[in-house]
Amino acid sequence: MSIILKTTNLCKSFNGQTAVNNISLNIERNSVYGLLGPNGAGKSTTLKMITGILRPTSGSIEFDGHAWKRSDLNHIGALIEMPPLYENLTAYENLKVRTTILGLTDKRIDEVLQIVRLTETGKKRAGQFSLGMKQRLGIAVALLNNPKLLILDEPTNGLDPIGIEELRELIRSFPAKPGLEPITLELDRDLTAQQNAQRLYKEYTRMKNAEEALVRQIDSGRQELEYVQSVLLALQQAREVKEVAAIREELVESGYLRSNQKGQRKKKAVFHPREYTSPGGFRVLCGRNNRENDELTLHMAAKNDLWFHSHLAPGSHVILFTEGREPEAADLEFAASIAAGHSKLAGQSLAAVDCTKARYVKKPSGAKPGMVIYTDYKTLFVRPRLEE
């Protein structure tokens, strides 16, 4: 078997006190590996270093054949100490919050609930679960990204004998889950080994180039689809004829429609975003279409004003103008709820909205109206604010 995780002389000290001393592990893929030791032996500290919660004092960690890097967390599932659950939400809703952040489909929620045997919990909230059910829901959270490595820190703590046995049975079943299928290469018996290798490499290069071209086409198509969906949403939420007219002008400028005003001077776009006032008295503006979104985000907003947008869904840009003041949580929730209400997530009971400073929002070269990229954001979960 190949090695999925390797540590070499891993050490961790806290204020000169050694907690982990020269731990070297070789953990094989598709295996169950246990760390045994008394309290204070450094088991949890070791797992926290592997999951990036703590930085090693010395030593090295390799994951899947390369030096560990933070992006490897996309392929690692972990349950360290207590399960991170929202006790006022159901099992399904807890997982829905995570899939929204990870950009996964709802199908994955059903899959992991089936794996941990929590499909029959219905509308029961996580706060009403037994400790064993909470542990299994925590494992379901860790399994959402279909990890190559699953790390569980003392998952049977506090469970009764039946709960311990059920959890052990669940853990023992993981290596038997379907994984990567073996690859079989057909060789031409009339060719030498070197000629077969050259033939296969040529075929690999052709397929690799085709894949890269296809990825570019898919990305271009995805961007086109995102833009069209944003235009459709703006049309659905338009209240007046002039708003529809503004969207038509945008489509003409973007080359989607022909202008029926040949030879006439182009009219200057009217900028009139929706305006609100937060509980703390902050001014909040919401774009009605993509051109207004660009104007709000790229020209009106100061660097430290706050920008809101629905997470991974078409929606309006919303700006909270701070004017040198610090907004309270109620102000952030208010602006986020407006962004949710003017997005494709408006029909959901709980919507994910990203928030960042306007300085971290950029428009890529050649991007269509309203299309931006952003960093340094946090995600808020709010109830969409619907227009009366």
Structural overview:
This protein is of the alpha+beta class. It is built from nine helices and 14 strands. The chain has helices at residues 43-50, 91-102, 106-115, 131-143, 161-173, 193-237, 241-253, 290-300, 329-341, and strands at residues 3-14, 17-28, 58-63, 66-67, 76-79, 149-152, 274-277, 283-286, 306-310, 318-321, 351-357, 361-362, 373-374, 378-382. It has a six-stranded antiparallel sheet with strand order 7-8-10-9-11-14, sandwiched between helices. Helix 2 packs across helix 3. The chain is globular. The chain starts with a strand and ends in a 6-residue tail after the last strand. 27% of the residues are buried. The model is unreliable at 178-183 (pLDDT under 50).
